[in-house]
């Protein structure tokens, strides 16, 4: 994915200019901290162009002068950190402005590694993005991988207008399998919020995992997208996986686990990856439709195979399946007026299967961004 040789834009602004720009554009800096990154994309000569780029340790941006087909008008931004990971206590805050009519891709070159924590220090990352009229922002990072005892919290805030388009992928793996670390970190928290231009909340979501001495709380829900209409937006299940599907017009629920609080690794059973995809905007309606159809088909086929080989207790409109029967779980929910947004939640046994799903389902973005995602 854009790993060929490319020229890099080295376009650094003074910190004083950055602060003035942040205030003028409505992007808020972290109180008490200086921003570590800022990028502004605007139309120049009819093309999407980086007009401002700033970064400082530990954050670095690589911006190809051209990525993908010459027929597409898009800017690709690769975000990375020195040393290839986030160190205990790091605090990264980044502002991104995508001007009217511009197309921007924010991605990574590899998984984001969160190293072991020192004491109670927590690594933090904040992204605040503003997406203009007829603009497209595609955020397609590789997954976050937390090392043993790591503590990590990230927050991403997107401000859109009615005709903006946004694709967001947010996902985490269970850790370094080769080192025997499986869901062995201390804290992982990821918040993703989308607001309309007038400040109206459109989508509010927090996923949080933490582990104590012998117990954990898994904040995960598959059968709701937790929009502003479904307050409270922070949800808790201890520790339960649930997924709701509409198959042949009937709502069915697959209950994967039910029981007392247990260690995080035990609660996650054989699942090694948790992912979320958010797709917003009428321009992306064809991608939303395909994902909904494919997820319905995939889950229907898996449930049918599992139900034929597993004796389950029958209840009206409900199907209960052993957690080791489904290797890949996905659920879709629409949000916003006229269902202009879609959220997809995934639990999978392997990172490769999620990469494959993302490549297939987001392939329709290639004509817009110049390259197929995750290829």
Structural class: mainly beta
Number of strands: 22
Radius of gyration: 21 Å
Count of runs of 4 or more consecutive helical residues: 5
Main beta-sheet strand count, sense and barrel state: 11 strands, mixed
Inertia-based shape: globular
Overall number of structural domains:
1
How much helicity do the residues have?
10-25%
Bin the strand percentage.
35-45%
How far the N terminus sits from the C terminus, by CA atoms, comes to 5 Å
Order of helices and strands: HEEEEEEEEEEEEEEEEEEHEHEEEHH
* Residue windows where pLDDT falls under 50 for at least 5 positions: 1-32, 213-260, 316-320
Average of the residue pLDDT scores: 78
Family: Belongs to the UreD family.
Pfam families: UreD (PF01774)
Keywords: Chaperone
Protein name: Urease accessory protein D
């Amino acid at each position: 994915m854009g790993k060929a040789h490319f020229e890099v834009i080295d376009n650094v602004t003074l910190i004083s200019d950055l602060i003035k720009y942040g205030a003028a554009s409505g992007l808020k800096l972290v109180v008490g901290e200086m921003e570590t990154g800022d990028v502004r994309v605007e139309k120049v000569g009819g093309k999407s162009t980086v007009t401002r780029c700033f970064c400082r340790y530990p954050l670095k941006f690589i911006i190809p002068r051209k990525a993908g087909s010459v027929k597409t008008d898009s800017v690709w931004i690769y975000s990375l950190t020195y040393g290839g990971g986030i160190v205990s206590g790091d605090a990264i805050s980044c502002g991104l402005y995508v001007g009217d009519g511009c197309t921007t891709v924010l991605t990574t070159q590899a998984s984001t590694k969160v190293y072991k924590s020192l004491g109670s220090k927590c690594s933090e990352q904040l992204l605040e993005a503003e997406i203009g009229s007829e603009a497209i922002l595609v955020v397609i990072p590789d997954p976050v991988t937390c090392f043993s005892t790591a503590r990590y919290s990230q927050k991403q805030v997107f401000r859109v207008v009615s005709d903006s388009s946004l694709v967001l992928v947010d996902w985490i793996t269970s850790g370094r399998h080769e080192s025997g670390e499986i869901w062995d970190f201390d804290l992982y928290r990821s918040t993703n919020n989308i607001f309309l231009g007038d400040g109206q909340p459109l989508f509010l979501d927090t996923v949080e995992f933490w582990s104590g001495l012998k117990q954990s709380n898994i904040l995960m829900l598959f059968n709701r997208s937790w929009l502003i209409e479904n307050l409270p937006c922070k949800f808790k299940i201890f520790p339960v996986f649930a997924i709701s599907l509409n198959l042949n017009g009937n709502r069915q629920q697959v209950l994967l686990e039910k029981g007392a609080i247990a260690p995080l690794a035990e609660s996650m059973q054989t699942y090694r990856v948790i992912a979320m995809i958010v797709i917003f905007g009428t321009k992306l309606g064809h991608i939303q439709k395909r994902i909904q159809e494919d997820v319905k088909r995939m889950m229907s086929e898996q449930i049918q195979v599992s139900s034929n080989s597993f004796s389950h207790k029958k209840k009206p409109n409900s199907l209960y399946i052993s957690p080791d029967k489904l290797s890949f779980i996905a659920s879709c929910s629409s949000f916003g007026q006229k269902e202009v947004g879609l959220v997809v939640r995934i639990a999978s046994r392997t990172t490769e299967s999620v990469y494959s799903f993302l490549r297939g389902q987001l392939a329709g973005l290639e004509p817009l961004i110049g390259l197929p995602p995750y290829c």
